[in-house]
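User: Here's a protein and a ligand (adenosine-5'-diphosphate). What would the complex look like?
Assistant: Let me lay out the input and then the predicted complex.
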Amino acid sequence: MKLELRNITKRFGTLTANDNISLTLEPGEIHSLLGENGAGKSTLMNVLYGLLQPDEGQILIDDQPVNFNGPGDAMAAGIGMVHQHFMLIPVFTVAENVVLGNEPTSKIGGLDLDKARELVKEISDRFGFEIDPDAKIQDLPVGAQQRVEIIKSLARNAKILVLDEPTAVLTPQETDELMEIMRGLAKSGTSIIFITHKLREVQQVSNRITVIRQGKVVASPLPKSSASELASLMVGREVDLNVTRKPVKVGAETLVVKDLTVLDDRQHQMVDGVSFTVRDGEVLAIAGVQGNGQTELAEAILGLRKIHSGSIEVAGRDLTKSTVREVLEAGLGYIPEDRKKDGLVGDFTIAENLMLDGSFGAPFAKGFQIDFAARDRIADELIEEFDIRTPSATTLAKQLSGGNQQKVVVARELSRELKVLVASQPTRGVDVGSIEFIHEQIIAARDAGKTVVIISTELDEVLALADRIAVMYRGKIVGIVDSKTTREKLGKMMAGIAA
Amino acid sequence: MSKIEVTPGMFSKLESKPTLKTPITLLLSALVVIAFFGFLGKPGDVSFVWSDKREAIQLPAFTVNSMLFCTVVGVVLLLIAAFSIYRSVHAKKTPVWLIAIFGFGVMMALLGWLATGAVQGVQMIFILSNTLVLAIPLILGGMAGVMSERVGVVNIAIEGQLLTGAFVSAVVGTMTGNLYVGMVAAMVAAGVLSMVLASLAIKYLVEQIIIGVLLNVLVIGITNFLHSAWLDNDSSHLNYPGTFDKIALPLLSDIPVLGQVLFNNRITVYLMFIIVPVLWFILFRTKLGLRARAVGEHPLAADTVGINVAKTRFWWVTLGGMVAGLGGAALTIGNVGSFGREMSAGQGFIALAVVILGRWQPIYVTLAALLFGFTIILRVWANQVSPGIPVDFITMVPYLVTLVAVAGFAGKVRPPAASGQPYIKG
Ligand SMILES: Nc1ncnc2c1ncn2[C@@H]1O[C@H](COP(=O)(O)OP(=O)(O)O)[C@@H](O)[C@H]1O
Ligand SMILES: [Mg+2]
């Protein structure tokens, strides 16, 4: 089956997410879509899958124009999609999720779950997945959930499989396994659209590459192109992600975390007896695949999550039972992993967002009253200092691009008197220019003798910033190693294999 | 190289510490029964009457000294409490059925204590069958709640749907002279009301709670107005439907006790017997149910496998409204025999609570609704057998029992994940 997208344009209000994009997919081909965050890759795929209607353009299958009014139509045409955010129902079993919308029924009209189980078994065996059809999705690790998504598409006889950023949630080893699966599928005639922003992966599996930047197709480089060529196509200029770091003399142990255990509401130990210390002038990176307890660890340090056992100390002061405000006043700065949800109030202005944590007293407030003059003056200073690209300080935060939003958060946190900075996914969904800037700011904080913890799932970021690296796996720290550790070894640690 | 070991899930699970909440509540309840109904109880005899005079098979009444009876029951309860403590110490939960038996024991002691010395004794059939009849609007209202919340629409309008059903069934039943026509009209009317809720909540993404409250106020206002401006002028031609005849099912109704309670009833009760298991079957054993639950849990995921979220929500909410309409008819032509102002009297809101208490499961919801039905009849009956008793205090007891039962349930209350959330398509 041959697929062609012809001149697709999709607008969201004034934003043109897809601008006249065309691409083709031959049978049995792996076609990679490469682009930065926000380039419009997911939007294009949602158009293909019938979740969004294009404003202009056409989809053709075997040279016949088709019209998808909903995902049902796309699936009927043989298109399957593994979404960036999984479309699985957590309280349903694997078998139920796989057959949902396409259920085998028994003679009296009931649901035939036995048939569903067989189907899951049969496809799992064919591709060597080990998936228990009766496991509930919420009990499966993300890697397994992704395989369920693939099974779900294959169960519907997908001839074209779209994988949207499938490697974001995988360890390097699991990524390699996925590549194998993709090659196997392609060999058996399934064509694949593979979406990613990681260059290495593109070089590994693609038959063909299309690079998208700001909603437009900018190039179709050959699979044998070098990483730096691909990077500059993707970003639109030469990039150098190596941050220069001076060696710094480390100081006192300012952050001490001891035997920390944090539970979720089902009594799972999301953080499982974690201990580490970080010194002044040092960056400790917490690496690991997404969802291994990093979020909970960061939230526990800030005092957002109840600590089950263990302790947290900042500069000799015990903060285990402290409120968030006490933690902030003890000198902790926090960059949350989800800036839209936890870092900013989208409907507040930039100036207001820059004083979110400062409403208790000087310099932003006098008694009960906000000092508006001080607020505006400080906002202007920070906008200047942190290179926040905005028309004015009264622009609403939600109107900024991801990178500039993140700079607002970073500016707010770094402008306080800090002892410790905890930054969770500081550059997720941020353009490359802003990544460079934010990295420089983090390193500047370290050079100024602050204690820095960054939590990142991107190995590149970890290697660029860290003095030491702690790898988390299923709530535990597998090991703490120095920054010269090889990628391969870190990859193994991310899969839980201690050195 | 060593690999970190974890349980098959993702993270290791902490052994939950034994909680003594349930056993201690049980223990205290048992002691209260022994002390207040037993030792400090009423001297005199109580008789439990198990048969109606009309019945073919007559069971002898069971007469016993009240203090002795309550003490014996109390001791049994104490044993159950002890067993529960033993299990808790070994980090095991007390099974729900055992808590149910415990609750039943407390109720029996309460009934025995109340009826001490009363000539008519504890009329089990009267109490149980009235419990059932009074619970019907709650059960059917609860099913309406289950049907809409399972697909992700919060239905605050059950009260209005019940009242609509009650009003329409009474009026149409009287005017046509055919109660079945009245019943169907009630279902249609409440169904139409639900369509308003469904389409506003789905198509126009108005806050679901606001629409629900508005619909309730609207229905109360309209029925009140029509009642005083129209029905009252000519009640005998407009609001005098009477009730359905009772149908005694052959053979089944001859079973002692249960036969009279369960199988000698009006059609509204029998329809409930059908609706609840059918709804359970559809929800958990058919593809329709799987899809409905998917829509209520994760509408976007349902959409990506080609399920029409809006349509699913619309029809489940509408059909749920029809079931609530039937519940409204059960109030008038299934029980009282005419329509009265605001006669649903908050039962639609109790139904909401019943839905949560019953964990969005038709069978549990039914049991929870029966408990509320029991408290309604208990209030009436307690006044008859032992006048002067603080009735409000007595009717509190079943709720206390409920609290214990809920505490004993395994797991947390977890509504359908997308309940109350509109689904906006790009
Ligand atoms: N439903 C939507 N409404 C408004 N803007 C959107 C919507 N979906 C995506 N966008 C915007 O479109 C752009 C492209 O997004 P997306 O396709 O998700 O990028 P990618 O997948 O390449 O990271 C982004 O700027 C994003 O904010
Ligand atoms: Mg995307």
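Summary: The longest helix of chain B spans residues 309-336.
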